[in-house]
Amino acid sequence: MRAVPGEWGDWLDTEKLRWLLLAPIGLVVVGLYLVVRFVGKFLMKVALVVVLVGLGVSVWLQRADLAECAETCSCTLFGRAVQIPADKNPNC
User: Domain for residue 91, yes or no?
Assistant: First the structure.
């Protein structure tokens, strides 16, 4: 099957993506720890913490949206369409 631009693969549905998005959130937490622990200059530390917190919040909000979008049959993750499992909404 040919991939359609703007869509994720058929094997990626909303449930799998919700679990897969926990990995980047975990990486952000590890990155925050490393920044606070090892970066010496205060302004660089603050800038990196702000960037990592913003990234973490962005991924968390996308993950939360995946939990609710199956009802409307229009799930996207960072602008790309996501398959909705039949057991979540058979009308999609």
Answer: no
